[in-house]
Amino acid sequence: xxxxxxxxxxxxxxxxxxxxxxxxxxxARDLARALNCSPSKVSHMExxxxxxSEVDAARYLGHCRPPHQHIDEILEFxxxxxxxxxxxxxxxxxxxxxxxxxxETTASAIVCYEFGVVPGLLQTEDYTRALAIESGLTxxxxxxxxxxxxxxxxxxxxxxxxxxxxxxxxxxxxMAVGSRAxxxxxxxxxxxxxxxQRVQIRVVPTSSSxxxxxxxxxxxxxxxxxxxxxxxxxxxxxxxxDRSEAVKRYRSITRHLETVALNEGQxxxxxxxxxxxxxxxxxxPDEHVDAGCPLAQEQx
Length: 300
Prior knowledge:
300 residues, alpha/beta, 434 Repressor (Amino-terminal Domain), Endonuclease, Chain A, 2 domains, 7-stranded mixed beta sheet, disordered N terminus, disordered C terminus, DUF5753
């Protein structure tokens, strides 16, 4: 396999192999010696730049000795990949999926579209906590989700983060999650994050024409070497896709979102106005944030 043909599965498997080697305290050269292979082979396996066989992965993991459950999860990759594969996470947030984290941390560019909630990479702790509890998780599991999501978000705080564009539908921004104070903080966080290097946040207004993005959220990830990957997240599973025809379809959806979304400046103004609406005291128990705030009407 050439480096240009790196598949998402190889990249995810390689990241898992490296994680368990480091967890076991091995240097790459030590593991290569134990496997009776060259250090370069171990390097290629961990970077996903050489197709990893199930036998090689099993031998590798046998020396690193992760729990059997994790061995089974990694080897399952070899039984289910034809351009699509499904990762189960139950009702917990998808952040716990090591494959997703590996794909994000090695990406050179990320495009995310969300219709119902703020993207995970942009959520504040209070927003994540409230979302997890409202999804049915216990307070303890909700706190675990907050910790894992915070670790995942470190991606955007790197000195050279991936070029990231987030398209967020107006519905997601008007959906109250947690307290008014939490929503105010979340919206201001989007304003500030959208000013960071290499990060674009664009609001997709409800007044925009119908578009294919209405079919559901997605996150696409591109790499300097290897196939792009599209991540489709649902309530209990995450589907990772690297088939070329599917990736092309989501590129087309992205191009359309670029035409219907507010530009960056308009989006920041809109978010700031919405944040100020949440900052105002509630006048009545059934009061909601005004869906027709002047700025929104003017720009949308």
